[in-house]
Design a protein that fits this description.
Layout: H1 14-26, E1 31-33, H2 54-62, E2 69-75, H3 81-93, E3 99-104, H4 109-113, H5 123-142, E4 152-159, H6 162-174, H7 178-188, H8 199-204, E5 216-220, H9 221-232, E6 240-244, H10 247-258, H11 266-272
Parallel strand pairs: 1-2, 2-3, 4-5, 4-6
Helix pairs in contact: 1-10, 3-5, 9-10
């Protein structure tokens, strides 16, 4: 029987997150980052309907890991910056400096309106200024500078040969949850000042008919390795974040098949083996 490659359905339990994090640490990944969603897109597949609280999740994962860094995502509309800074220091003190914070600007109104923190429609246009003030308040609370860096987020769909990866990608597209897609597109329509290549602008492109709005790399293990090396060499890029079509399988295949082919990760591969 032919293997069917539909996107894996899951609920992000602590046990699942622990398994994924332990595998990423085993394969020499530098860090893991938690997702922050207050409401999913719905639809038959319940796309992003389930999510754990990031700070509590990462505090638990720190206790069962040794080397890997962990980043909790904070939705700036839901948590005062001084509290976020205090939580980050508390968790960081138990990790030997392995903890960091990922800033989420928060643009889908429906995620926040039901709980009260959504200010008004104008927030969508000024949310990045708000994030800048939020980070400044956190840094002032710390009294010392913290590193702020840009990382490139991509979806990786890899297989033995390019044709097999492309076939799996085409199969994923046939399983698109159009109800969830329609909900997300409706939320995105509030973005009146979408900059080119921003998340909202990519959502609104006519050709974007998939739930994944992120740049997607599709190809053989060697092809993906070359593409990731190219991205890593771009000016201003200090690293990357990979999302896989099947987290546990994707992490293992990255560690055993893609990473050994990457020039930029050669030292890490030697260290792990």
């Amino acid at each position: 029987m032919a293997e069917r490659h539909h996107l894996v359905q899951y609920k992000p339990s602590f046990a699942l997150n622990r398994r994924i994090t332990e595998r990423t640490e085993h394969h020499g990944f530098d860090f893991v980052r938690s997702m922050m969603k207050l409401r999913g897109c719905g639809g038959p597949r319940k796309y992003r309907n389930h999510n754990l609280e990031p700070f509590a999740l990462m505090a638990g994962l720190i206790a069962v890991t040794i080397r890997i860094r962990l980043f909790a995502s904070v939705a700036v509309l839901t948590l005062p910056p001084l509290i976020a800074a205090h939580m980050a220091v508390t968790i960081g003190s138990s990790s030997g400096g392995r903890f960091g914070v990922n800033i989420v600007s928060g643009w889908p109104a429906a995620e926040y309106e039901r709980m009260g923190p959504w200010p008004d429609r104008a927030h969508v246009a000024r949310r990045y200024d708000y994030c800048g003030e939020y980070v400044q308040a956190m840094q002032e609370a710390w009294s010392t500078g913290r590193n702020i860096a840009a990382l490139v987020l991509v979806v990786v769909i890899a297989d033995e040969i390019d044709a097999a990866a492309i076939a799996r990608w085409e199969q994923h597209k046939t399983g698109t949850d159009h109800q969830a897609f329609t909900w997300r597109r409706a939320q995105t329509s509030a973005e009146v000042k979408a900059q080119t290549d921003s998340t909202a602008e990519r959502f609104l492109r006519p050709e974007n008919q998939l739930l994944t709005h992120m740049p997607t790399l599709v190809g053989s293990y060697a092809t993906i390795a070359g593409l990731l090396d190219t991205i890593g060499a771009m000016p201003g890029v200090c690293g990357g974040i990979q999302s896989f079509d099947g987290f546990e399988r994707g992490v293992d295949r990255f560690g055993t098949r893609i990473q050994p082919c990457m020039q930029s990760r050669a030292g890490v591969v030697a260290g792990v083996s």
